[in-house]
Specification:
The protein is mainly beta. Helices cover 3% and strands 39% of the residues. It has one helix at 18-24, and strands at residues 4-5, 11-12, 25-26, 31-32, 64-67, 71-73, 77-79, 82-85, 89-91, 95-97, 101-103, 107-109, 142-143, 147-155, 159-167, 175-182, 189-196, 201-206, 209-217. A hairpin with a 4-residue loop joins β3 and β4 (31-32). The longest helix has 7 residues, at 18-24.
């Protein structure tokens, strides 16, 4: 039999390692058991592809995470160091970060993003959605599903007015903006642009209402 090195630094067929061998290998089945962390050489460099099927439900704690491919997480991710992503990060759970997150690819989030610190953006940031030109009715309350901007106008000679209301009530009564136009020689147009918080109700009331357009934020 040729010499065989085992993890504990001894060599077969030295009979002195018989007990150690039995501790490690079930000779009847050929399976290896009872291996602890100290049995594995620090230079072993075990490939991540040999972790089957995955790390399971346990927490994985890293001082730094560097990924050159996509990263998908179904649970919460808590990071206290720096995370560098070269591709796409997709999260269906929460992302709690106390350090930096540097991303050169896309970040797609299906939940809310709560930020208590500063946000610095060196490139472009798209915050507006598509214009919603639905048939919004005059003096009718609507619930805002996102933060948004409401743009409405009235037109009628010799004068017109437009009032914007928004608050937490299903029938909002708090006036946030108002415009009136007394144009004896013109069309008498009155326009308003009103911000509305997500979860609040809003309505516009124009003396000679013409149209209302909504621009979602986020």
């Amino acid at each position: 039999m040729a010499d065989v090195s085992i993890i504990r630094g001894k060599t077969l067929p030295d009979s002195g390692i018989k007990n150690d061998l039995h501790e490690l290998i079930d000779l009847a089945t050929g399976t290896v058991s009872n291996i602890v962390n100290t049995d594995i050489k620090s230079s072993a460099a075990i490939a991540g592809s040999k972790i089957s099927p995955n790390f399971g439900s346990q927490d994985v704690v890293c001082a730094k995470v560097t990924a050159s491919d996509d990263v998908s997480c179904a649970e919460n991710v808590a990071i206290s160091g720096t995370t560098d992503l070269g591709s796409q990060l997709t999260l269906t759970g929460a992302l709690d970060v106390t350090g930096n997150v540097d991303v050169t690819g896309d970040v797609d989030l299906t939940g809310d993003v709560d930020i208590t610190g500063d946000v610095t953006i060196d490139g472009n940031c798209a915050i507006f959605g598509a214009w919603d030109n639905s048939s919004w009715s005059n003096n009718t309350a609507y619930l805002a599903s996102t933060d948004l901007l409401v743009c409405a106008y009235a037109s009628g000679a010799p004068n017109s007015s437009m009032i914007g209301y928004t608050d937490e009530n299903s029938s909002p009564t708090t006036i946030r903006c108002y415009n009136t136009n007394d144009d004896q020689n013109g069309t008498g147009r009155a326009c308003i642009t009103m911000p509305v918080k997500k979860g609040h109700y809003w309505k516009v009331n124009g003396s000679t209402f013409v149209a209302c357009n909504v621009l979602p934020i986020g």
